[in-house]
Amino acid sequence: MRLMKRLVLAGLALPFAGAAHAQQALDLPQIDVTKVVAEIGPGWVKKQTGEEGVTFVCESDACGGRGVVGVGQAKPSPDYVKLVVAEPDKALQSFKYGTEESLKATGCAFKSFDVRRLSDHRVQYEGLGFCPEGATAAMTTIFDSQRLGMMSVQILTKSEAGAVKLRDDSVEKIVAALDAPAADAQPAAR
Q1: Burial (0-12, 13-18, 19+ Cβ within 10 Å), 75
Q2: Which fold has domain 2-179?
Q3: How many CA atoms within 13 Å lie on the side-chain side of 139?
Q4: Taking the alpha carbons of 20, 121, 85, 30 in that order, is the dihedral positive or negative?
Q5: What is the value of pTM for the model shown?
Q6: Phi-psi label, residue 85: left if phi above 0, alpha if psi -120 to 50, beta otherwise
Q7: Mean of the pLDDT values across residues 105-126?
Q8: Beta strand 67-74 with 149-157: parallel, antiparallel or unpaired?
Q9: N or C: which end of the chain has fewer CB within 10 A?
């Protein structure tokens, strides 16, 4: 279980740097991922909630395999967010490097990274990998230039199908909140 927590924390602490690109950002409020993804399914227990995210833990096989889920948000430099949204394939290399470096201590490694453009102001990086003891790691990070923020979902569990489903269900909630009218969006706790 300690390895799982280290994976989630390492992934949420990715280094962010990048070059500036001309792209207008709207002044929309951040969403509060701890409210948007308030629960993820039967058997998953909320263990830790903070300003920047929430951690869920399953300690039985009833959840599709023991595991940990981290849902977080960060406000990387505006230039980095703009770079990712403007040139996601180019920016993927630095994101991938940062992810791989931060995961070295866990023994986990992602085997694939994919880029999805969700809109002209939103990009999603997705990864799937494996860890010691047969665990599966699944992650998605969304960059939104209208909110100049980053939201991340990271899963570590024994079931690859379970990890992907948890990731996708959580990401769906985040995207719905990002797409909601600004008046309906949950403001981030300060």
Answers
A1: middle
A2: Protein Transport Mog1p; Chain A (3.40.1000)
A3: 31
A4: positive
A5: 0.80
A6: alpha
A7: 92
A8: antiparallel
A9: C
